[in-house]
Amino acid sequence: MKLLNISEVYQIAIKIEENGIKFYTIWSKRLKDKKLKDIFSALAYAEVEHKKIFDKMLNEIEDYQPKEAYPEEYFLYLRAYADGLIFKIEEVEKKLKQIKTVKKALDFAIEREKDSILYYQEVKKILPNQQQNEIEKIINEERKHFLDLTHIKNSL
User: Fold this and answer.
1) Domain 6-155 top-level CATH class
2) In this structure, which of 1, 12, 70, 81 has its CB flanked by the most CB atoms within 10 Å?
């Protein structure tokens, strides 16, 4: 298995956000209920903003090498974890076709938010100090999405 480099860490984060944008946008278009439609639209917009942040972070790095304290196994772990998070576009579209109810869509979204939080928490450990605050903001927003989605699901 190939090691990740810091550029790939950001590219994976960007892909996670792109998958979120696609999922939330598709569901906002499918929904008839205005409140749910607006919620999914807002979630898609938040993912767009996260993607912009990761794009900016990616452009700011040069050849940053994480601290020596992170052995190769850690990067192998991040790669394996990311491989489980990142779906090929065909897989995303297939999954979207399988989700037939709002409740199932919310379940799927909740799981993706949890996975994203865990990934970003791990990634934060290897980022340059000046970028750790930015990723912490994203983690906090993803937590808020998780809570919002859970609340919506429980209220259905």
Assistant:
1) mainly alpha
2) 12
- pLDDT value of residue 119: 87
Give the span between the Cα atoms of 102 and 11, in whole angstroms: 30
3-state secondary structure of 78: helix
For the chain, the domains span 6-155
Q: What token pair was written down for 154?
A: 């429980």
> Counting runs of H as helices and runs of E as strands, what totals does the chain give?
6, 0
Q: What is the C-alpha to C-alpha distance for residues 134 and 40, in angstroms, rounded to an integer?
A: 23
Q: Which of 125, 88, 90, 145 is nearest to 9 (CA)?
A: 125
Q: How far is CA 11 from the centre of its chain?
A: 11
Q: Residue 132 corresponds to which tokens in the numbers above?
A: 């750790």
What is the pTM for the complete model shown?
0.79
Contact in structure between 113 and 145 (CB atoms under 8 Å): yes
Give residue-wise pLDDT tens across range 87-109: 556 666 777 788 888 899 899 88
